[in-house]
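Entry 14. Structure prediction run on the chain below.
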Amino acid sequence: MAITYADKRLYLLYADGTFLLAEAKPDGFQERGKFAVPDTLPATGATCPVVTSGKMYVRANENLFCYDVRAGADRKVADPRHVKLDLAKISVPIAKTDGTPARNKQPDAIFVPTPHDVVAKMLELAGVQKNDLVYDLGSGDGRIVIAAAKTFGSRGVGVEFDKHLVEQSLDNVQKAGVGTLVQIDHADMFQQDLSRADVIALYLPPKLMDRLLPQFQKLKPGARIVSHFFKFTDIAPDKSLRFDSRDDGDAHELYLWTAPLHKAGR
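Output returned:
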């Protein structure tokens, strides 16, 4: 969820495209309006709305909408101005053939923190045990592998490409007192050998999950993959559940697969 405060109002945009206008009060907030942003696809987060000069700008994936939010404005909410962003023009260098990251390669996905109670539910769904080796691909601030170590005493490896998040993760590992159990690798997840993993945690868009499939095909039988919010394109999960988080007030979809993975119809 993304929140913007302007004109004594809260503008709340949820990852599913639900938009809420609310009035903030000491004892909570009162809903003043609600609608759905058109043509919204699932996303790992929501971009904060921008309100200026009576206009509100909302980005939903490749779509940019402009709403007239002036008091008494005639424009209907369902009829915003709309621009399609050409994301194909944004090029990202790929990894070198020797397996080392390209010098100017950027992370393939932004870091959107998973609420702590959702992390706990992911580990529960995956059935994490003390003897498990837990990998988190795109580990952000390290919260998943840290939680696994603190709760179950299991070993963990966080794989993160953003060096600033790696530094933050290492600091969090030390503060949590789990430095003997958790390591954080500054590395490209698509170059990782995952054959030792017992559990792999993901919070990645489907296209990135699908790119990882060649590595997942080498997982040992019984290894589990647990994903927050997203699924593989052609592989149905073995289990799924909907979890209402108290940390952020949102509903979260969680999915579990067990190796070996099989595509639909096979």
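The two ends are 37 Å apart (CA to CA).
Filed with the rest of this week's runs.
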